[in-house]
Amino acid sequence: MTTAQTGRAAPPGAPAGGGTAARLLAGRAHQLNEIGLLAAIIVLYLALGSSAEGFLSVHNQLGMLRDAATIGIAAWGVTLVIIAGEIDISIGPAVAFSSVLVAKGSAEWGLGVAGAIALTLVLGLAWGAVAGWLRAVFDVPSFITTLGVWSILGGLGLYLTDALPVTLPESGVFELLGGDLLGVPTAAVIMLVLFGVFAYVARYTPYGRSVYAIGGNAGAARLSGIDLTRVRVALFATTGLLSAITGVLLAARLGSGSGGAAAGLEFDVIAAVVIGGTALAGGRGGMLGTLLGVVFITVIGNGLVLLGVDSFLQNVVRGVIIVAAVLINVIVARRGRATTS
């Protein structure tokens, strides 16, 4: 019987179907992936700590936490999307447009800070739900629907601002969101709280079990009574909301909203999720792996800057390291399955 038929959730890293033995093997492979990724992060810290001046300083570590939050908050939602066998490539423009909305709303549209934030979050939820509705009802591939959102929001963000930053008004709320909470970046605190929420949802709730079941075998999930339309709409509405939250936090951090902000963020988010062991084919993955993937991506980006690598080469170097990390994780996972079989 499949996971969808039994109603039990496959553990993070396990496929939705295929029997107990297959789930155990996949779960072990996922654990090996996480251990390998943690080891890679430790190696990076040792290497950069001895070669990049200031890498281990408190100031730099707090800065990395802020950078990690920009990737991580959206990554929690994208993890569930990919586990369900879908994809969302709209994250970057969605974050940028959200930063424009909150800046325009608070500085020019007379909504006030609270009204601007509320508008941004509601619209983020809405455009995500529309993308999910198109996927669920009309069976439009999620790559195409989110590509459309990517283009629309990217264009609107630049149109509304003439490609110029919009300065936020002075506000204690924005100072808090862009600053620290008990010495820790507020964005990082929000990221970790949301991580706990999504880790619980993915592992212990019927919704989380439905996501794994759909990613493992959508047909079987439908036959078992899972409402695919509802789950898919909820998935993309969630990523829209998380993108909006990230946009608000980014605007507060920078002091302005910009249609050109967060360029390429969607690639960092997807890379963090995949490096963390979530299968692009769906049905397998987990939040802990994504958290490690976010840390890995953040450390690489920070290290390249501190080492003075040419800005034009940073993406090249980062891309090579990411591909190498994924290959190593795949090899470790295969050896783990071979050892336990």
Automatic annotation (TrEMBL):
It is found in: Cell membrane. Its main location: membrane. The chain crosses the membrane at residues 35-56, 68-89, 109-130, 142-161, 181-202, 233-254, 260-281, 288-309, 315-333. PANTHER family: ABC TRANSPORTER PERMEASE PROTEIN YPHD-RELATED, ABC TRANSPORTER PERMEASE PROTEIN YPHD-RELATED-RELATED. It is a multi-pass membrane protein. Coiled coil: none annotated. The keyword Cell inner membrane applies. It comes from the Bacteria. It comes from Actinomadura vinacea. The keyword Glycoprotein does not apply. It holds the Pfam family BPD_transp_2. This is ABC transporter permease. Keywords: Cell inner membrane, Cell membrane, Membrane, Transmembrane, Transmembrane helix, Transport.
